[in-house]
# Entry
Amino acid sequence: MEEKKAAHKSGFIAVVGRPNVGKSTLINSLIGQKIAIMSDKPQTTRNRILCILTEPDAQVVFLDTPGIHKPIDKLGEYMVKAAEGTLKEVDAIFFVVDATEKMGAGERYIIERLRATKKPVILVVNKLDLIEKSAVLPILDSYMKQYPFHGAVPISAKEEVNLDALLGEVKQYLPEGPAYYPEDMVTDQPERLIVAELVREKVLHATRDEVPHVIAVETEEMTERSNGTMYIRMIIYVERESQKRIVIGNKGVLLKEISTLARKDIEALLGTKVYLDLWVKVKKDWRNQPGTLHNLGFH
# Structure
């Protein structure tokens, strides 16, 4: 008798957690391509980035949400609203926590938000590579006492440990259905936004602690030239002249370094040579201006 073929599944997964627990690293590792930007600075992810993993038996669409935290400005309010709004639209949720840090107020704040959802929540304990094996069970136990998770999987997103087990776990909660997106599509974000995010990532890595929150990057022009190269002009916004000087660096050295590193990533993404033209401009208090936030892609 012929064995019945398993039904194809498809669904949406929200990836939530405090800032810096490795949500973007996890999604990039699952997708196998750099889409979500990574940094050790808070508030790295600002937009809700949709990333798509297509396998023979399922299509899993991940929503990399901004870190849930108590907002201090309009940008912060937007980010939390985007993250919490996502929880209502998905089939399941990954709650990512950092194995190297004790559960604190930030985790409890998110758990309270999860109580309002009826969706299956899987606890993802990340950074397994940084702790002793004997520490894993006590961490899982401490979280299980706080919330009735549908599953719990310890992983290392960076080292790609246990990711197959995590996918196997979440596929149980996906509904049967066709693929929503073409097989070769890995994100719904326009290229203009992704390249701007890649530049912002390099600025975050290169600048001091006082600058990252006030950085925004806008793609002003993206044109293919007759010789096949892509010309991209971008504006890096800061809020004060002193921050502008930091980003540019002595004799423009830092901006040149940012440009070189970003260009490599953008060329890998677009598969073509890129001429990157970066400018730094002061836009006072942009994080509290709805019009500016809208222009930068925060809707």
